[in-house]
Write a structure and sequence with these properties.
Chain A is mainly α. Chain A has three helices and no strands. The chains are: A mainly alpha, B mainly alpha.
């Protein structure tokens, strides 16, 4: 298998594994980590294309995704903290108050 | 021996990619959040190795510095803070386990079909010129300066939002 193709397949698998984790796990923190895994899959795809095409756009986008990941985690952790203070649990299914 | 050394980087690339995949898959089956975090950290470090082998050394450095050093340390801190308070002790998987697994297997099948049915090769750069730091830096600070500034605005908004969340919580506690 071609090296680039293998890395793209790996990137897609990381994204799919992260998405599956977000769907099937119940722990909020584990779900957040699975989201990070999805971002890592996207990063790998972008970096592989930046390497193959010799262009800077992919690498610039990878940097922007780093920043977005840092901002996301800085917001998500306080929200989870507050949720746990109110509900005393990390289980996502007890946070269903907004369900219509 | 020289033949082995010539293929060493390809071997290492495959090994890093395989290890990253295995640690990502472990994240789905491990039960304790701390073990999941360790699996994610190892996945990120292996991906950093992949970036290094591709010649994108600065992305590898930032992968380790920002993801492993900042994001995951923050996450581990949150796990240490919150996990003892978790009183649910319930099941590991949600009700959506089977839809999730079916979706994953469909995606695996699509990938396998895409691989075996001879997709066109990935496009290459014009002269196959390698990626270099100088061109990246010039493009980053001349063409993409607006995006760079917008991300700093995003970070500022994140800081303000985090402060607002905490403040709201304090008011709720006192009220």
């Amino acid at each position: 298998m071609d090296k680039v193709m293998m890395l793209q397949v790996l990137a897609a698998s990381l994204f799919a594994l992260g998405l599956t984790g977000v769907i099937i796990r119940r722990n909020v923190l584990v779900m957040l980590m699975c989201m990070e895994l999805m971002l890592n899959g996207v990063n790998l795809s972008l970096a592989t294309f930046a390497h193959t095409m010799g262009s800077a756009v992919g690498a610039v986008l990878v940097f922007l995704i780093f920043v977005v990941a840092a901002a996301e985690i800085a917001i998500a952790i306080p929200i989870v903290l507050l949720l746990v203070r109110r509900k005393r649990t990390l289980d996502i299914e007890s946070y269903s108050d907004l369900k219509g | 021996m020289t033949d082995f050394l010539a293929h060493l980087d390809t071997l290492l690339l495959w090994a890093f990619a395989g290890c990253a995949f295995v640690s990502a898959a472990l994240m789905l089956v491990l039960r304790q959040p701390m073990r999941v975090a360790i699996a994610l950290v190892s996945c990120m470090v292996f991906l950093g190795g992949v970036y290094g082998l591709l010649g994108l050394h600065f992305i590898a450095a930032f992968q380790v510095l920002i993801y492993v050093g900042a994001v995951m340390v923050f996450m581990v801190y949150a796990i240490m803070l919150l996990d003892p308070r978790d009183e649910s002790g319930g099941e590991k998987f949600s009700k959506l386990l089977w839809p999730g697994i079916i979706g994953l297997s469909l995606l695996a099948e699509a990938l396998a079909v895409g691989y075996w049915s001879d997709l066109p090769p990935a496009p290459r750069g014009a002269a196959g010129e390698p990626f270099d730091m100088i061109r990246f830096s010039q493009a980053f600070l001349s063409e993409y300066w607006l995006h760079f500034e917008l991300t700093s605005v995003l970070l500022l908004a994140a800081v303000v939002a985090a402060l607002a969340v905490i403040k709201e919580n304090r008011r709720h506690d006192h009220g």
